[in-house]
Amino acid sequence: MTGYGERHVIIVGGGASGVLLAYQLLHQPTCRLRVTLVEQRADIGRGIAYHTGNPDHLLNVRVANMSALPDQPDHFWRWLISREVDVPLCPDPYCFVPRRVYGDYIASLLEHRTTDSQDLSIVHGTCIEISEGQAEVAVMLSDGRRLNGDFVVLATGHDTRAPLRGHADPWAPPSSAPIDADATVLILGTGLTMVDCVLSLLRDGHRGPIVAMSRRGLLAKPHRRVDALKIDEADVPFGVSIGRLLRWLRGRIDTHVARGGDWRSVIDGLRPYTQRLWRELPPRSKRRFLEHARAWWDVHRHRMAPEVEARVTEVLHAGKLTLMAAKATSIEPNDAGAEITYRRRGDTKVHSMQVGAVVDCTGIVKDPRATANLAVRSLFDQGLARVDPLSIGIDTDGSCAIINRDGTPSRRLFAVGPLTRAAFWEIIAIPDIRNQCTGLATVLLRSVAEAGRNEGRQLLLDELLELE
Length: 468
Hints:
This protein is an alpha/beta fold. Helices cover about 35% and strands about 20% of the residues.
């Protein structure tokens, strides 16, 4: 425990989520607060999403919606146009810029505090264990260092499973893996991660066929220059079954399109309410959504930049990329790559093909306990965290507190970003994460203020007892 009036927050993960939370904590001068950011990469603010050096990897949200600060919606745009570059990256706020540029922006939020600051420390290392005591929490790093604090916040971003034998890393450049440029590459999953992988393969000169396979073979829809439709909160059917909710949504879309509008406007207009919709959806409906409707929602909600759509359309028409609605029934690694057996959707016949490499881009970890994140696994092992009822992540409450094995929310352990998808669902994009980090900062600062008042009362009582 740090001294009276000062508290120490340790944020495990120095990507976008961690930096956004650190910024919010350090820009609230209501109490003395020290923040330590633990990041295993050489630089902060990037994580998996924004560390890419591939200029073809664009944001899938337009610049106008990517401000890191909820109270300054044009903050990113103003930062972008203030950069001294010969050629403007963006003609207007409706454009989509390379993700590496956005990583520069996130890192810039803490630039003036990383050089000469007593309230922020950047620790480079890998967290392997988190423990909680009555008076403090502790973080253990792989090199043996131990950090003690008052709160720990997990901000490790997209959870990943341990790599399978014969599978290439979807986040590593293809040139780092021994993939024959003329061999067939099988990508499991047809979402935005698959699109990134295809763009990386093409930039690295891959000449062979690329097959992207998922149960439905759906491809993300593209963005268009349309504004969000204003939807009155009173018109949204919170708490109804998933069937009724989807019928209502289809009806709004049909009406809007019949009036000459675009379906994207309705989906975007629903965005302020998606987390509440998820929270109030009956448990059975949540399961039905994940099983039957999630893929359809994802391709309409998480869209491609128009430039990316043009490139993907080009390679599809050229036959370099094939989308397949099928399920792989077995993957057997061999000297040439892997032998795949699969069954097409709606067909009972089993087919096979030889591929040079398999890349798993299916996204959410099927079993949260199988995570490669040692920090999260340590919480499970100690009973300090539990899997949520849907088995899609760690269980947290509405204040981002991690819920332990007995169902009690912690007062010292918290999480932000994609790790909290079980409670918030729509929590992978910056517009959602920035609001979540602002809310958690308020919770932590309120807790610090209350602790300070309690300590002050105790100090006064001790002084009075000494006078007696």
